Amino acid sequence: MSFKTRYLGDVVEFIRGITFKPDDVVLPEQSGAVVCMRTKNIQEELDESDLIAVPQEFVKRDDLYLQEGDVLISSANSWNLVGKVAMVPALPYKATAGGFIAIVRAKPGKADPRFLYHWLASEKSQAAIRACGRQTTNISNLSIPQFLALAIAIPDLREQQRIVAILDKADSLRRKRQEAIRLADDFLQASYLELANRQNDRITIDSVLADIPNAARTGPFGSQMLVSEFQESGIPVLGIDNVVQNRFCWGAKRFISEAKYKELERYTVRPGDVMVTIMGTTGRVAIAPEDIPICISTKHLCTLTLDRSKMLPEYLWACLRWDLEVKAQTQREAKGAIMEGWNMGIVKALEVRRPSLDEQQFFVNKVHALRRLQSRTEKSLVLTDDLIGSLTNRFFTQ
User: Fold this and answer.
1) Is 337's pLDDT higher than 50?
2) Which of 35, 114, 200, 246 has the CA that lies 20 to 30 A from 378?
3) Residue 57, Cβ neighbours under 10 Å: how many?
């Protein structure tokens, strides 16, 4: 294979998203509305489950309309999520990008759009893109000049298409295994709704918290913990990436010293705690495993310790994911339309249905049984991910 090294800016256009105010948002089905993608829509695939729109006069140039093959990139987010990408499929509606994301569009004849997507999504490229972020108080902003100055080793278009065919085939296998995991989630959702829809009374999350100090907590804030204080080993620090898949998983490696942990001990995550994302990608929820080591959570999470004589963690996890009334409450209370944000008060005030403990436990038993099945599928998924990692290293390390 013959590769030529180019600057990324030689082969792509970088198009900033539009800006607007919360009051400018309209319904996607409204006449003349243009769907506006946000950071929460950028997942492994473009997430179209929660869309907002703006009037078409906000889209002042034709190149701001999304095209099939465009890559959306998170350009302002928590530092570990800057650079996250999703490819735009053929959309049955007009759409654009919001202010905290941008469009990366392959220049005709320079790069195959799917080759570009695979390159941007590769582990090595993601690390390089994150390094282009400029840290502010709350979020990291992608430096566009640095991003466009990244070196990309690129072959001719025919070779790009051959590489894409191989990576797409491996990616198809991965997606089939992901679909099997998703179908198990669909079954759990149906089981939850069957149980919850039999309940009429609602209680606040605040009323089912454990009777201990800091049963609900978010932080640390400001100078309490700086990115510069992270180190290569020590006490783990949990963030959005540990929760964003709606199940607990280890993400970026962030640690603080034991001395720093002593200062921040109130933010310790306990086994069985329910963690909810409240910044960036809001409303994702996961349960801390029973064997979790000593660690703390960040200001991007609201961490809840429940009184298990009132509510079981797995039940609240399902409620926060799938209860339509809960979602309606958060949409009314959430601040901001482009980068939606919650706070601990919003989470504690959410009203949820509470079945009997026996009914909750019956549901929890289903959760555990399906998790065992999913675990086997996930092990196969890991092997597929390893294959894709090996292929991307081969094709993109030149």
Assistant:
1) no
2) 114
3) 9
Give the whole-angstrom CA distance, residue 349 versus residue 208. Answer: 11
How many whole angstroms separate alpha carbon 266 and alpha carbon 297? 10
Q: What is the DSSP letter of 260?
A: H
Length of the chain (residues):
398
Distance CA 111, CA 160 (A): 8
**Amino acid code (one letter) for 188:** L
Question: What does the alpha-carbon distance between residue 8 and residue 153 come to, in Å, rounded to a whole number?
Answer: 9
48-52, 230-234, 384-388: the lowest-pLDDT one: 384-388
Residue 311: phi, psi to the nearest 5?
Answer: -150, 135
Q: What percent of the chain has pLDDT over 90?
A: 71
Specify the pLDDT at position 339. Answer: 47
Distance in angstroms (rounded) separating the CA atoms of residues 193 and 159: 49
As given in the structure block, the two tokens for residue 9 are: 């800016």
Spatial separation of the C-alpha atoms in residues 72 and 381, rounded to whole Å: 25
Q: For residue 135, what pLDDT band results from cuts at 50, 70 and 90?
A: confident
Contact 280, 100 (CB under 8 A): no
Mean per-residue pLDDT of the chain:
91
User: What is the per-residue pLDDT across 26-55, written as a single tens digit (0 to 9) for each?
Assistant: 999 999 999 999 999 999 889 998 899 999
| pLDDT band for position 398 (cuts 50, 70, 90) | low
How is 319-373 classified by DSSP, letter by letter?
HHHH-HHHHHHHHHH-B-SSS-B--HHHHHH-EEE---HHHHHHHHHHHHHHHHH
How many C-beta atoms surround the C-beta of residue 330 within 10 A? 18
* Sequence-distant (≥ 6) Cβ neighbours of residue 106 within 8 angstroms: 11, 12, 69, 112, 113, 115, 116
Strand partners, 95: 35
Residue given tokens 């099945």 in the structure block: 373
Q: How far is Cα 124 from Cα 395, in angstroms, rounded to an integer?
A: 12
Most confident of the ranges 25-39, 73-87, 337-351? 25-39
Burial class (CB in 10 A: 0-12, 13-18, 19+), 321: middle
302: left (phi over 0), alpha (psi -120 to 50) or beta: beta
Element at 142 (helix H, strand E):
strand 140-142
Tokens of 97: 């990008």
